[in-house]
Amino acid sequence: MNKYQCPQCGAASSMRTSPTTYHCIYCDSSFEVQPDQQEVLNTILQQQQQQAANKQAIIDQLNALRSTTNAVAYAKPRIRIVTLLVVILVFIGGMAGFIFNKKSHSLIAAGTGGMLSGSNWSTATIRDFKVFSGTKGTVVWQLYEQSGYNLDSERYILRIIDPVKNSVTKEMAFVPTVTWDEGFNSGEFIGDFHAFGDTCWIINDRDGLIARDAYTGDVIVDKNRLGKMFPKLASGVTKASYYDGQAYFELNTNDGFEYRYSPWTNKLYTKDEWDALEDAKGNKIDRTFFNLSDDDKRPQLYISAETVSAYDLRSNLFGSNLEEYSSGGVPSYYKSSIHSVKKVNPDKVYFNGVIEYADNSRAIIAYQESNNKKSPMHICAIDASGKELWNISNNDTKPFNESFSSSNRSVDHFISGNKIVFYLPYDNNHTIELDMTSGKTDWVYSSDNTSIK
Predict the structure, then answer these.
(1) Contact 286, 306 (CB under 8 A)
(2) What does the alpha-carbon distance between residue 320 and residue 313 come to, in Å, rounded to a whole number?
(3) Which is deepest, 56, 120, 187, 303, by most CB within 10 Å?
């Protein structure tokens, strides 16, 4: 073992294969190190001393043989000496071959198989699959998990992929190599990913809240940086939770305070400040909401007009009471905020339906043709009058069928401008991007595509 740290995985356990080359035991790669002058001199001196010792050992063996045999019998020991010399040379040659082969294998792994290759590592599996989109277009994150065969180790490699070109744009160690025991609790340091533009915010038990660049994977906001951005968080974040309905993080600090952080506005609020924003009259807006009834057999679509907080992204209505609300049965405490509720397309049933996206003018709905779990999955767009703008059900949506029928929440989605991306966060991670105006498929990606460059 030595003092040098592997530049690939960060491990500090490697063995020297030449005066300037080291081989990492954990990630099976080789790297060059330029030692200082004194270290080079010490290495040369050690090699010279070892060579002298080997030479003296051979001389001693020859002298011993000469003193115990006569000239006639000397022929047979001579054969032994030659054999001994051959064995020594073969041993030295074998060690050199071992070192050379190991180094060549590491170079091959780095060049063609990437960081996920290596004889000491098991087949890599995808632990997390996420899709992000910002100013530079859509990218895919494939976070691989891999165990060491001969070492108590677990590593996590991030591949960032351009799904349009089907090519890897970057590959990196997501975190330093950990032990198997630490790997069992990987959620503590991997965490949950939440994308906002070019930034991926991550919450986990170890760091609280940090952020990475969606296109490079580099950490751009760590615990220290967060404390400098917002001095109220300087004591550290002990717990973080994300609220999708209002797109904010709830943060608890080491000194016992509770805050709300909005990534879209990049502002930090106390709980009271956030509640005041929600209740302020100036922050009330009129919105159109699309709702599907909570009917396992025949879910239908309703559209409501409501006055809500500008920070509220969800309707105040309950799917189980939509029929009652549309008949004028709105509870008194909602009278001032809910102006109208109506059923649209009364003959249309959205089996197993989910509203994936909605704004004031349209909704994107995923559903199935019937209650039969094998029935085709549809993705459609509906405007505020209830008119169907487009509807697709083809080979691009077919891979979603099984997952959608068993648990429609297992098909995830992501919005970017006028595009919507649907993907499976497991299995083959089938992904499609649709134009929300026309329903046209822009591209399709799958993580099991072996042609990835």
Answers:
(1) yes
(2) 19
(3) 303
Single-letter amino acid code for the residue at 237: V
Give the three-class secondary structure for 446. coil
Q: b or e along 315-324 (b: 16 or more beta carbons within 10 Å of the residue's beta carbon)?
A: bbbeeeebee
Residue 63: the pLDDT is 56
Measure CA of the first residue to CA of the last residue in the chain; give whole Å: 36
Residues 6+ apart with CB under 8 A from 110: 8, 29, 117
**Token pair for residue 433?**
């991007």
Of 61-70, 255-264, 389-398, minimum mean pLDDT range: 61-70
Q: Which two tokens stand for residue 334?
A: 């909602």
Residue 408 and residue 354 in contact, taking contact as beta carbons nearer than 8 Å? yes
pLDDT tens digits along 284-326? 788 888 989 887 778 999 988 888 877 677 777 777 778 777 7
- CA 140 from centre of chain: 9
User: Which pair of tokens denotes residue 235?
Assistant: 């004591």
Q: Quick one: CA torsion of 58, 63, 69, 73, rounded to 10 degrees?
A: 50
Which amino acid appears at position 428 of this protein? Answer: N
Distance (Å, whole) CA 216 – CA 158: 10
Enumerate residues 6+ apart whose C-beta is below 8 A from 97.
none
Number of H helices, E strands in the chain: 7, 26
Q: Angle between the 37-68 and 75-108 helix axes, to the nearest 10 degrees?
A: 150
Query: Measuring CA to CA, which residue among 159, 156, 160 is closest to residue 133?
Result: 160
**Which residue is associated with the tokens 């040379």?**
89
CA distance 263 to 364: 24
SS3 content of the chain, % helix, strand, coil (to 5): 30, 40, 35
Going edge to edge, which strands form the sheet with 338-344? 284-292, 301-309, 338-344
Whole-structure pTM value: 0.65
The phi, psi pair for 56, rounded to 5°, reads -65, -35
- Give every CB contact of residue 169 below 8 A, 6+ residues apart in sequence: 139, 160, 161, 162, 215
Q: What is the dihedral of CA 4, 8, 10, 11, to 10 degrees?
A: -70
With a CB cutoff of 8 Å and minimum separation 6, the contacts of 415 are 357, 421
57-106: pLDDT as tens digits:
655 665 555 555 444 343 444 444 444 444 444 444 444 333 333 332 22
